[in-house]
Specification:
Elements: E1 2-5, E2 8-11, E3 16-18, E4 26-28, E5 42-45, H1 47-56, E6 62-65, E7 72-74, E8 77-83, E9 91-97, E10 100-104, E11 126-131, H2 143-159, E12 162-167, H3 173-183, E13 188-190, H4 192-203, E14 212-213, E15 224-227, E16 242-248, H5 257-260, E17 265-267, H6 275-285, E18 289-295, H7 299-305, E19 310-312, E20 318-319
Helix pairs in contact: 1-4
Length: about 325
């Protein structure tokens, strides 16, 4: 019923690809990050993901927009998208047929988010889930505590005549940082790539604090600056002010994270489930089988020790619900 080839999952019964990195005739896209979203002939996605992909894609693509929890039927199967809690518009896919209920999580987080829809967990027979942080030491602090530390870092930098710079992915992490800094009353300037995505968030109804697009000619250094990691070369217009840099990533729980990212600080702000979140998902979904994809292979053994029937999905695997 399901097959994995070229690191892409395909629902054979309805000829639907899932998060394929190669262009397909028709493909479900779980969210707008570039490691999941590609330009296909037809993209099946939520309205939020479609709106973000329209900003990121370079060519015109046909979108088949499906709202959360509004099922549709294809070839004796019922399909439903429901929230993954990862970034705006991120979704999971439920496929129901005579052989049972299959869920593909994509990237997900059960933790509260300031800018993404809250995640949902549905009971299923088989779940195919990511396990990025599938080791026990990845336990993220409460988001409010992380937010306080981020705001404190920004205030201290500004008070000491430095520019606080936060390295954050332009989709998802940057908007979380904006919400955190805005609620703390800290003025915000953002890279143009962050501004383009943030504008799409606003069009989708997400309330973001006021922000300005970074402009070298007018920037005076009295704002916190949000910058994508892919554009690590910082502007040279800080004048006499120095930069105080921080990276926002779940990998901040690794002791060497700020050295690895070349930043002064690293804050554990993540849009993925941590280790307890992964276990909580399995407990709430109650699947007969757990298939793992995109993450720590040894999480398989941790689940098996808990009595869970689990395996890591390999290329060319032929799957069935039972």
């Amino acid at each position: 019923m399901f097959s994995l080839a070229e690191n892409a999952l395909r629902v054979e019964a309805i000829d639907l690809w899932i998060d394929s990195m190669r262009a397909r005739e028709r493909c479900y896209v779980s969210h707008g990050h570039s490691d999941h979203a590609r330009e296909h002939g037809v993209v099946v996605a939520t309205p939020g993901t479609a709106g973000l992909c329209r900003v990121r894609f370079r060519r015109r693509v046909e979108f088949e927009e499906r709202a959360y929890n509004e099922p549709w039927d294809e070839r004796d199967h019922r399909l439903t998208l429901f929230s993954a809690g990862h970034v705006l518009g991120s979704s999971q896919l439920l496929v129901e047929g005579e052989r049972g209920r299959f869920v593909y999580t994509g990237d997900f987080s059960l933790a509260p988010s300031f800018t993404a829809e809250p995640a949902e967990v549905k009971r299923c027979d088989v779940v195919l889930m990511e396990c990025t942080f599938g080791r026990p030491h990845y336990v993220f602090p409460p988001r409010d505590e992380v937010a306080e530390e981020i705001a404190r870092f920004a205030r201290l930098a500004l008070e000491t005549d430095a520019v606080p710079v936060f390295f954050a992915y332009s989709l998802g992490k940057a908007q979380e940082a904006m919400a955190i800094l805005g609620s703390a009353g800290i003025p915000i300037a953002v890279h143009s790539a962050v501004a383009a995505i943030s504008d799409a968030y606003v069009r989708c109804g997400v309330a973001l604090p006021e922000y300005q697009r970074y402009d070298a000619a007018s920037f005076r250094g009295n704002h916190a600056l949000i910058w994508p990691p892919s554009a690590r070369a910082l502007p040279r217009s800080f004048g006499r002010r120095r930069a105080r840099t921080a990276v926002l990533t779940g990998w901040a729980l690794d002791a060497s994270a700020h050295y690895r990212y070349g930043a002064d600080r690293a804050f554990p702000l993540s849009d993925h489930a941590d280790y307890p979140g992964l276990l909580a998902y399995v407990e709430r979904a109650q699947p007969r089988k757990v298939l793992l994809f995109h993450g720590r292979r040894d999480f398989v053994h941790r689940l098996r020790r808990l009595g869970v029937d689990a395996e890591y999905l390999e290329n060319h695997a032929q799957l069935s619900l039972f």
